[in-house]
TrEMBL record:
PROSITE patterns: GNAT (PS51186). It holds the Pfam family Acetyltransf_1. It comes from Lysobacter arseniciresistens ZS79. Signal peptide: none annotated. CDD domains: NAT_SF. SUPFAM superfamilies: Acyl-CoA N-acyltransferases (Nat). This is N-acetyltransferase domain-containing protein. Residues 3-162 form the N-acetyltransferase domain. It comes from the Bacteria. InterPro entries: Acyl_CoA_acyltransferase (IPR016181), GNAT_dom (IPR000182).
Amino acid sequence: MTLRVRPARAADLDLLAGWAAAMAWETEHRRLDPATVRAGVEAGLADEARARYFVAMDEALAAGRETLGIPVGTLMLTREWSDWRNGEWWWIQSAHVDEAHRRRGVFAALYRHVEQLARAADGVVGLRLYVERNNAVAQATYRRLGMDDAGYLILERGFTPW
């Protein structure tokens, strides 16, 4: 597998929306409204202040084709201001690797790409993500990449029905 990570573009909309819905079902057993997810991804793609998406491409799968690779995974970045640190945390969200390409370094390539961007950007204090408590496989992956339990419990109050 030869991986290259690139920024997502408008043409990736349906792929990203489909993967976001698949990830929600796989990790939380939530069926998302496809139109809502599509509109949310479209809004994120249109405005970097809301989100930045990245796509991992397997260039080896493109051998002999005119394409520059086949999409095999994605993640989304959002930003959170920290007054304690006078800087931004970048949150990794909507991470998904195509099932046929898992355990082959796709998420690690995406993570390392955004980690490099974060380290090079002024005012970024670190990377964060949240993970389901029972998702031991994902937690092990994140720990291998140098992430630790931040000691926080996330609470929420939603205003719209799932």
